[in-house]
Amino acid sequence: MIDQSELIINGELVAARSGRTFDNANPATEELLGVAADAGPVDLDAAVAAARHRFDEGAWSADPAFRAHCLRQLQTALQARIEQVREVLIAETGCTLSLSRLMQVEPVIADIAYVADLAESYEYEQALPDTTTLMGPASRIVRREPVGVVGAITPWNFPLMLNLVKVTGALAAGNTVVLKPAPDTPWTAALLGRIALEDTDLPPGVFNVVTSADHGIGAQLTAHRDVDLITFTGSTSTGRAVMASAAGTVKRTFLELGGKSASIVLDDADLGAVVGLAASHICFHAGQGCALATRILVPRSRYTEAVDAAEAAVRAFPYGDPMDPANMMGPLISDRQRARVLDYINVGRSEAKLVCGGDRSPRHDRGFYVEPTLFVDVDPDARIAQEEIFGPVVTVLPFDDDDDAVAIANNSIYGLSGVVSSGSVERAMAVARRLRTGTVAINNAHWLAPDSPFGGYKQSGLGRENGIPGFESFLEIKTIGYPPA
Where is the Aldehyde dehydrogenase domain (predicted)? Predict the structure, then answer.
């Protein structure tokens, strides 16, 4: 049982004012995992008030060196308690031990160093050349200043990564934060807040964590008049609601939303190896990743060969107990999500040819498992080729030439990521430049790093996380003119 049933507000561990808690099940066993504090409107108001007071006081936002110091303390503390963090994350997400090491824990803790350094090294003030305006000669500077109070709303699929990206970026830039994690994964956020409280010099009110089973608390945060910016990761439908709610106060919003990305395998690629790897990537974390390339596009002339390679990879993909280091896929996050994925699989049966998988796991009596699933003969306009499933469902689609591949890849309301594989980097680059996506990986050379901006085109979101653009999304721009010396 996870025992973390308190909120972090104004530097204190506090119960929800109502005394309410909520519980979740371990997705791998369906056993009760623990209880979390169920915040209500009064608690959210208290967290925002604490963040507002600390920001308006001014000392935090004025001291980049101290902010960097606190972030480095947080990194050190997370590293010291890394196995506790991993245990909680695996228990509440169903993420496998192997994936936690590869993506979900070690790398994201290491990434804090980048943003801590950026807090100190960033040039917050730049001079423009002297000029003559309508009012006469003028010197000018452009300042970048913290936005203020940031409301961070995070999803359940990569909770530590996304909590840290949003929180550390906002803090490094001099803002204060209210973090509202997904109801499915309250404890990773609560543990992060507790570590920050116990093991860093963060002043009270700078970082607040509000867990709640009530989705209305997220809506309250987005509409709150004392919150200056909302950073949200989640579905496109919820992102639209966030935009509408934030519009009442015309606050800035950063939205990282859904995806239906394509992996284009050109005819000069090592087709068997590339398709097998592409199919495997979709099954990592049970397909619960917004940037996964769930549509594999292959040359029509080699379609049978590609289908055989995809089938071999999907049938052999190791899944099961998340704590078994041999497994690369665990369960889906919840029974609700499993039902959603199975509904999409049933849609796929009517739209395409099911090659393998397509049901609950026959290996497991308990846990929210779904078999890795492969569909072929998929029309580019089919629902399973257009809608985000968020499950281990692989689709293979044929194309005629490079132009056709680009057209199929871009035939989506989304534009989050893409993959291009070719024997010629120059040819792959030409295709990558034509994709309407925020990121592209060529020949498995991945872009994921703390200095790489991440975000999408079209209905995959607004703005960028990570890198200089991500840092600057937490800053306002002020231009000052003054008489020349």
Answer: 16-480
Same domain as 282, residue 214: no
Q: What are the tens digits of pLDDT across the range 380-392?
A: 999 999 999 999 9
Residues 286 and 359 in one domain: yes
DSSP 267-325: TTS-HHHHHHHHHHHHHGGGG--TT---EEEEEGGGHHHHHHHHHHHHHH--BS-TTST
Torsion of CA 302, 266, 452, 100, to 10 degrees: 20
Q: Is residue 379 part of a domain?
A: yes
Is residue 452 assigned to a domain?
no
Contacts for 320 with CB less than 8 Å, ≥ 6 apart: 327, 329, 330, 361, 363, 364, 369
Q: Which of 87, 92, 125, 256 is catalytic?
A: 256
Assign 72 to helix, strand or coil. helix
**Any domain includes 318:** yes
For residue range 319-329, what is the model confidence (pLDDT) as tens digits? Answer: 999 999 999 99
Length of the chain in terms of residues written: 485
In the annotation, is 123 catalytic? no
- How many domains does the chain divide into? 2
Residues 306 and 383 in one domain: yes
36 and 145 inside one domain: yes
pTM: 0.96
* Axis-axis angle for helices 186-199, 159-172 (nearest 10): 40
Based on the fold, state whether residues 115 and 30 are members of the same structural domain.
Answer: yes
| pLDDT above 90: residue 77 | yes
